[in-house]
């Protein structure tokens, strides 16, 4: 199946770019066509069911909600990640030189009522320059009933928030939670096939999925400047496939994240 049968390609308008700069986020509606939604769900669920069991309240958020490097197991995700319409969006928001930084599933299946507190994605993997993008593509309709994301518009303007963790917290991969004013939060309700794009400093959280019959399945893809380094790792370059332009790092230029 051709990519044009699966994905909708378009450029962001001047109004959308201005809104992103001011508010720190955008929702792009219908970035996946119905064929793309169906195929991506099929591949992602096959991978999920292969590695995950049902929700277990005694397991960590990582065990219950995340499946990393999903592009290794899902060809449609791989095409979307490396050659899909998000590349053009990243070029407009980051620049001509971009690499893929993360691909994972972030699922809250029905019964998973665990909330995820306020945080910045750059708090979990601090990249410099500070222009990395998080993209969340909905595989289901997401709303307040099944654990949609909440964010605080404009909160990216405060920059990187430092949260101290001791060695035990780091080893256990505990959550990095920051203080935020819940009264400023806005729910990011989306239809399946929509994609939420936001700045690496955006404060966001999610509540639990209290629906009895609906899952909340999201594809998480992160993009960064091709020369982005890992601040937390002695300034080493973040490895990821170069999806546009060039880089000064040979190890990034030659890196191939293939299935």
TrEMBL record:
Its cofactor is Fe(2+). One of its GO terms (molecular function) is iron ion binding. This is Phytanoyl-CoA dioxygenase family protein. It comes from Hufsiella arboris.
